[in-house]
């Protein structure tokens, strides 16, 4: 067993739903913390006042531009983390915080919220509101294998992370990705790629997508711009890196989560 990696959870402007999703791994979370990762920073789970150096930073929530502390913290996170992961729709795309216009009861001056990719460089996106526990778990395992594994394990980790890194390379700018149902319309349906599987509708946390006559119909007024539908669509960013190694990737994740073979 190689040395464990260091992981931190950095909370920006969000609802903490992504942290709850991480905790929903239950025994799997204990397996990760026991065998693969030391949690060195987390407002609710780690006794650390300042952001330390770490291998992987899981950043939840968007950045409030009027909050100097938040802007400084996200920049500090980038400086001290080898890998920065945008955890959830708010961190990756802004999500529902994009609709804020100020006037909140406790901080009325806070009116501008942007994805963390608008302020710093991000390595991996995990879209969704909130991402499922298994996906967060898998990224943590793959981050460990990428940094501490054998050459074969590193190759599989790179294959698994490739699509999520591709999402991060696109960034949050509307010129490349609107992170909403518009992506499904312009990049999948209008290109003749939609096969009517309904995955986008099933992944939408606010039921803004319905299937009508075998095709998705997007209610833009309900869309919260979390990016879940585009990330879940099998025709959105088809990756041979993942598909060709699917069984091997599942096997290595299962082996990591069951180190005793149970």
TrEMBL record:
Its EC number is 1.12.98.1. It comes from the Archaea. One of its GO terms (molecular function) is flavin adenine dinucleotide binding. Keywords: Oxidoreductase. The keyword Oxidoreductase applies. Residues 185-214, 215-243 form the 4Fe-4S ferredoxin-type domain. The keyword Oxidoreductase applies. Belongs to the FrhG family. PANTHER family: COENZYME F420-REDUCING HYDROGENASE, GAMMA SUBUNIT (PTHR42845), F420-NON-REDUCING HYDROGENASE VHU SUBUNIT G (PTHR42845:SF2). This is Coenzyme F420 hydrogenase subunit gamma. It comes from Methanospirillum stamsii.
């Amino acid at each position: 067993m190689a040395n464990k990696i260091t992981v931190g959870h950095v909370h920006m402007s969000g609802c903490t739903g992504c942290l709850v999703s991480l905790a929903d791994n239950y025994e799997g979370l204990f397996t990760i913390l026991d065998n693969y990762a030391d949690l060195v920073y987390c407002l609710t789970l780690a006794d650390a006042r300042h952001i330390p150096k770490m291998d992987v930073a899981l950043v939840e929530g968007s950045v409030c531009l009027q909050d100097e502390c938040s802007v400084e913290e996200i920049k500090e996170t980038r400086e001290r983390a080898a890998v920065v992961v945008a955890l959830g729709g708010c961190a990756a795309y802004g999500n529902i915080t994009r609709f804020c216009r100020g006037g909140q009861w406790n901080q009325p001056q806070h009116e501008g919220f942007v994805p963390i990719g608008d302020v710093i460089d991000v390595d991996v996106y995990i879209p969704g509101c909130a991402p499922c526990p298994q996906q967060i778990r898998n990224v943590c395992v793959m981050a460990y294998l990428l940094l501490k594994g054998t050459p074969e394990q590193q190759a599989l980790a790179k294959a698994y992370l490739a699509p999520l890194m591709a999402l991060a390379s696109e960034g949050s700018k509307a010129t490349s990705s609107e992170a909403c149902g518009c992506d499904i319309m312009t990049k999948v349906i209008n290109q003749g790629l939609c096969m009517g599987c309904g995955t986008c509708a099933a992944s939408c946390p606010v039921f803004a997508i319905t299937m009508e006559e075998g095709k998705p119909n997007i209610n833009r007024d309900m869309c919260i711009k979390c990016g879940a539908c585009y990330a879940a669509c099998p025709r959105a960013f088809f990756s041979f890196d993942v598909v060709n190694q699917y069984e091997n990737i599942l096997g290595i994740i299962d082996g990591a989560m069951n180190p005793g073979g149970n």
